[in-house]
Amino acid sequence: MTPEDRILPLEGVENFRDYGGYAVPGGLRVVRGRLWRSAHHGAATEADLARIAGLGLAAVVDLRRPTERANQPSRRPAGFGGQVIDCDHGDQAEPPHVAFLRETDLSAESARAFFRDYYRKAPFEPRHQELFSRYFEALDAGRPVLIHCTAGKDRTGLLAALTHHLLGVDEADLLADFELTNLAARIEARLPQVTESMTESLGRRPSETAVRAFLGVDRTYLAEAFGAIRREAGSVEAYLAGLGVDAGRAEALRRTWLEPAQA
Protein backbone atom coordinates (compact mmCIF):
# COMPACT_ATOMS: atom_id res chain seq x y z
CA MET A 1 0.00 0.00 0.00
CA THR A 2 1.77 3.16 -1.20
CA PRO A 3 1.33 6.53 0.50
CA GLU A 4 -0.73 7.69 -2.47
CA ASP A 5 -2.98 4.62 -2.16
CA ARG A 6 -3.94 5.74 1.34
CA ILE A 7 -5.30 9.11 0.23
CA LEU A 8 -8.97 9.45 -0.68
CA PRO A 9 -9.00 12.51 -2.97
CA LEU A 10 -12.05 14.62 -2.20
CA GLU A 11 -13.15 17.98 -3.53
CA GLY A 12 -13.85 19.84 -0.30
CA VAL A 13 -12.17 17.82 2.45
CA GLU A 14 -8.40 17.86 2.84
CA ASN A 15 -6.06 15.19 4.16
CA PHE A 16 -8.60 12.33 3.98
CA ARG A 17 -6.82 9.00 4.24
CA ASP A 18 -6.68 5.46 5.54
CA TYR A 19 -4.36 5.01 8.51
CA GLY A 20 -4.75 1.24 8.56
CA GLY A 21 -2.81 -1.30 6.54
CA TYR A 22 0.57 -0.94 8.25
CA ALA A 23 2.63 -4.04 8.97
CA VAL A 24 2.95 -5.37 12.50
CA PRO A 25 5.43 -8.05 13.70
CA GLY A 26 4.22 -11.62 13.45
CA GLY A 27 3.01 -11.47 9.86
CA LEU A 28 0.13 -9.17 10.72
CA ARG A 29 -1.09 -5.78 9.60
CA VAL A 30 -3.61 -3.20 10.75
CA VAL A 31 -6.98 -3.74 9.10
CA ARG A 32 -7.43 -1.66 5.94
CA GLY A 33 -10.41 0.48 5.03
CA ARG A 34 -11.81 0.93 8.54
CA LEU A 35 -9.57 3.58 10.11
CA TRP A 36 -9.90 6.99 8.48
CA ARG A 37 -8.56 10.45 9.28
CA SER A 38 -9.15 13.86 7.73
CA ALA A 39 -9.53 17.61 8.09
CA HIS A 40 -12.94 19.18 8.80
CA HIS A 41 -15.96 18.46 6.58
CA GLY A 42 -17.47 21.94 6.49
CA ALA A 43 -16.85 22.31 2.76
CA ALA A 44 -17.63 18.72 1.72
CA THR A 45 -19.39 18.55 -1.64
CA GLU A 46 -22.28 16.25 -2.49
CA ALA A 47 -19.80 14.03 -4.36
CA ASP A 48 -17.61 13.94 -1.25
CA LEU A 49 -20.56 12.98 0.94
CA ALA A 50 -21.46 10.15 -1.41
CA ARG A 51 -17.93 8.76 -1.18
CA ILE A 52 -17.88 9.14 2.60
CA ALA A 53 -21.24 7.37 2.85
CA GLY A 54 -19.68 4.42 1.04
CA LEU A 55 -17.18 3.95 3.87
CA GLY A 56 -19.92 2.80 6.24
CA LEU A 57 -18.65 4.86 9.16
CA ALA A 58 -19.96 3.71 12.53
CA ALA A 59 -18.37 6.60 14.45
CA VAL A 60 -16.96 10.04 13.71
CA VAL A 61 -14.66 11.57 16.32
CA ASP A 62 -14.61 15.36 15.96
CA LEU A 63 -11.63 16.63 17.95
CA ARG A 64 -12.43 20.30 17.42
CA ARG A 65 -13.44 22.83 20.03
CA PRO A 66 -17.08 24.03 20.10
CA THR A 67 -16.22 27.35 18.43
CA GLU A 68 -14.44 25.52 15.63
CA ARG A 69 -17.44 23.27 15.10
CA ALA A 70 -19.75 26.30 15.06
CA ASN A 71 -17.55 28.17 12.57
CA GLN A 72 -17.28 25.22 10.17
CA PRO A 73 -20.24 22.89 10.82
CA SER A 74 -19.69 19.35 9.60
CA ARG A 75 -21.61 18.19 6.57
CA ARG A 76 -22.64 14.54 6.77
CA PRO A 77 -24.16 12.11 4.29
CA ALA A 78 -27.95 12.06 4.19
CA GLY A 79 -29.29 9.57 6.69
CA PHE A 80 -25.99 9.25 8.52
CA GLY A 81 -26.69 7.12 11.57
CA GLY A 82 -23.25 6.68 13.06
CA GLN A 83 -22.12 7.89 16.46
CA VAL A 84 -20.69 11.42 16.60
CA ILE A 85 -18.14 11.88 19.38
CA ASP A 86 -17.30 15.46 20.32
CA CYS A 87 -16.68 17.49 23.46
CA ASP A 88 -18.01 20.84 24.66
CA HIS A 89 -15.45 21.25 27.45
CA GLY A 90 -12.35 23.42 27.38
CA ASP A 91 -13.45 25.88 24.73
CA GLN A 92 -11.45 29.05 24.19
CA ALA A 93 -12.53 32.41 22.82
CA GLU A 94 -9.43 32.32 20.65
CA PRO A 95 -7.75 29.08 19.55
CA PRO A 96 -4.01 28.95 20.35
CA HIS A 97 -2.92 29.13 16.73
CA VAL A 98 -4.87 32.37 16.19
CA ALA A 99 -3.04 34.09 19.04
CA PHE A 100 0.21 32.71 17.68
CA LEU A 101 -0.45 34.14 14.22
CA ARG A 102 -1.39 37.53 15.61
CA GLU A 103 1.59 37.86 17.96
CA THR A 104 4.43 36.04 16.21
CA ASP A 105 7.00 37.31 13.75
CA LEU A 106 5.46 34.86 11.23
CA SER A 107 8.75 33.09 10.60
CA ALA A 108 9.10 29.39 9.87
CA GLU A 109 11.11 28.88 13.05
CA SER A 110 8.50 30.56 15.24
CA ALA A 111 5.86 28.28 13.68
CA ARG A 112 7.94 25.19 14.43
CA ALA A 113 8.57 26.40 18.00
CA PHE A 114 4.83 26.94 18.48
CA PHE A 115 4.02 23.41 17.34
CA ARG A 116 6.76 21.81 19.43
CA ASP A 117 5.29 23.51 22.50
CA TYR A 118 1.74 22.58 21.47
CA TYR A 119 2.60 18.90 21.08
CA ARG A 120 4.21 18.78 24.52
CA LYS A 121 0.92 19.98 26.05
CA ALA A 122 -1.70 18.37 23.80
CA PRO A 123 -1.67 14.85 25.32
CA PHE A 124 -2.64 16.28 28.70
CA GLU A 125 -5.47 18.60 27.70
CA PRO A 126 -8.49 17.26 29.62
CA ARG A 127 -10.75 17.60 26.59
CA HIS A 128 -8.29 15.65 24.45
CA GLN A 129 -8.06 12.91 27.05
CA GLU A 130 -11.85 12.64 27.18
CA LEU A 131 -12.11 12.44 23.40
CA PHE A 132 -9.21 9.99 23.08
CA SER A 133 -10.79 7.74 25.70
CA ARG A 134 -14.15 7.76 23.92
CA TYR A 135 -12.41 7.06 20.61
CA PHE A 136 -10.82 3.91 21.99
CA GLU A 137 -14.24 2.87 23.27
CA ALA A 138 -15.55 3.24 19.71
CA LEU A 139 -12.71 1.03 18.46
CA ASP A 140 -13.92 -1.83 20.67
CA ALA A 141 -16.65 -2.64 18.13
CA GLY A 142 -14.19 -3.05 15.25
CA ARG A 143 -16.37 -1.00 12.91
CA PRO A 144 -15.19 1.85 10.62
CA VAL A 145 -14.16 5.02 12.45
CA LEU A 146 -13.15 8.49 11.24
CA ILE A 147 -11.12 10.92 13.34
CA HIS A 148 -10.72 14.55 12.35
CA CYS A 149 -9.99 18.03 13.63
CA THR A 150 -9.72 21.25 11.62
CA ALA A 151 -6.65 20.50 9.49
CA GLY A 152 -6.43 16.78 10.26
CA LYS A 153 -2.78 17.00 11.20
CA ASP A 154 -2.08 17.82 14.88
CA ARG A 155 -4.81 16.51 17.20
CA THR A 156 -5.71 13.91 14.59
CA GLY A 157 -2.07 13.05 13.95
CA LEU A 158 -1.37 12.52 17.64
CA LEU A 159 -4.39 10.24 18.08
CA ALA A 160 -3.52 8.21 14.98
CA ALA A 161 0.06 7.82 16.25
CA LEU A 162 -1.16 6.62 19.65
CA THR A 163 -3.32 4.08 17.83
CA HIS A 164 -0.38 2.87 15.77
CA HIS A 165 1.78 2.55 18.89
CA LEU A 166 -0.94 0.56 20.64
CA LEU A 167 -1.33 -1.80 17.69
CA GLY A 168 2.42 -2.39 17.34
CA VAL A 169 3.14 -0.45 14.15
CA ASP A 170 6.87 0.12 13.60
CA GLU A 171 8.08 3.59 14.56
CA ALA A 172 9.26 4.31 11.01
CA ASP A 173 5.78 3.63 9.64
CA LEU A 174 4.16 5.53 12.49
CA LEU A 175 6.24 8.59 11.65
CA ALA A 176 5.71 8.16 7.91
CA ASP A 177 1.96 8.17 8.41
CA PHE A 178 2.21 11.29 10.56
CA GLU A 179 4.25 13.09 7.89
CA LEU A 180 1.93 11.98 5.08
CA THR A 181 -0.02 15.16 5.89
CA ASN A 182 2.68 17.01 3.96
CA LEU A 183 1.46 15.26 0.80
CA ALA A 184 -2.21 14.65 1.54
CA ALA A 185 -2.95 18.23 2.63
CA ARG A 186 -1.92 19.57 -0.82
CA ILE A 187 0.23 22.22 0.80
CA GLU A 188 1.89 23.54 -2.36
CA ALA A 189 -1.42 23.81 -4.23
CA ARG A 190 -3.03 25.68 -1.33
CA LEU A 191 -0.04 27.87 -0.52
CA PRO A 192 -0.99 30.97 -2.58
CA GLN A 193 -4.58 31.07 -1.31
CA VAL A 194 -3.61 30.50 2.31
CA THR A 195 -0.85 33.11 2.11
CA GLU A 196 -3.27 35.70 0.76
CA SER A 197 -5.88 34.83 3.38
CA MET A 198 -3.35 35.17 6.20
CA THR A 199 -2.08 38.47 4.78
CA GLU A 200 -5.61 39.86 4.68
CA SER A 201 -6.55 38.74 8.19
CA LEU A 202 -3.25 39.65 9.88
CA GLY A 203 -2.32 42.80 7.99
CA ARG A 204 1.15 41.34 7.44
CA ARG A 205 2.45 39.03 4.76
CA PRO A 206 4.01 35.80 6.03
CA SER A 207 6.81 34.18 4.10
CA GLU A 208 6.01 31.07 2.09
CA THR A 209 8.33 29.04 4.31
CA ALA A 210 6.34 30.15 7.36
CA VAL A 211 3.03 29.19 5.72
CA ARG A 212 4.45 25.79 4.75
CA ALA A 213 5.55 25.25 8.35
CA PHE A 214 2.11 26.21 9.59
CA LEU A 215 0.25 23.93 7.16
CA GLY A 216 2.56 20.94 7.51
CA VAL A 217 4.00 18.69 10.18
CA ASP A 218 7.46 17.57 11.23
CA ARG A 219 8.34 14.33 12.98
CA THR A 220 10.03 16.30 15.74
CA TYR A 221 6.55 17.45 16.85
CA LEU A 222 5.50 13.89 17.52
CA ALA A 223 8.79 13.26 19.32
CA GLU A 224 7.90 16.14 21.65
CA ALA A 225 4.48 14.62 22.38
CA PHE A 226 5.78 11.12 23.07
CA GLY A 227 8.67 12.50 25.10
CA ALA A 228 6.26 14.47 27.27
CA ILE A 229 4.05 11.41 27.68
CA ARG A 230 6.99 9.30 28.86
CA ARG A 231 8.17 11.99 31.28
CA GLU A 232 4.74 12.62 32.78
CA ALA A 233 3.15 9.15 32.66
CA GLY A 234 6.25 6.95 32.72
CA SER A 235 5.44 5.22 29.43
CA VAL A 236 3.03 5.39 26.52
CA GLU A 237 1.37 2.26 27.88
CA ALA A 238 0.77 3.95 31.24
CA TYR A 239 -0.67 6.98 29.47
CA LEU A 240 -3.04 4.75 27.49
CA ALA A 241 -4.03 2.95 30.67
CA GLY A 242 -5.02 6.34 32.05
CA LEU A 243 -7.38 6.64 29.10
CA GLY A 244 -8.93 3.31 30.00
CA VAL A 245 -6.84 1.15 27.68
CA ASP A 246 -5.04 -1.18 30.09
CA ALA A 247 -2.98 -4.18 28.99
CA GLY A 248 -5.99 -6.48 28.70
CA ARG A 249 -8.00 -4.04 26.66
CA ALA A 250 -5.00 -3.23 24.48
CA GLU A 251 -4.65 -6.92 23.66
CA ALA A 252 -8.36 -7.12 22.83
CA LEU A 253 -8.01 -4.16 20.48
CA ARG A 254 -5.06 -5.82 18.78
CA ARG A 255 -7.16 -8.94 18.23
CA THR A 256 -9.87 -6.77 16.69
CA TRP A 257 -7.74 -4.50 14.53
CA LEU A 258 -4.96 -6.78 13.28
CA GLU A 259 -5.28 -9.29 10.48
CA PRO A 260 -2.93 -11.59 8.54
CA ALA A 261 -0.76 -9.52 6.23
CA GLN A 262 -1.83 -11.59 3.24
CA ALA A 263 -5.56 -11.21 3.92
Automatic annotation (TrEMBL):
Family: Belongs to the protein-tyrosine phosphatase family.
GO molecular function, one term: phosphoprotein phosphatase activity
Domain Tyrosine specific protein phosphatases stretches: 130-202
Database matches in PANTHER family: TYROSINE SPECIFIC PROTEIN PHOSPHATASES DOMAIN-CONTAINING PROTEIN, TYROSINE-PROTEIN PHOSPHATASE
Name of the featured protein: Protein-tyrosine-phosphatase
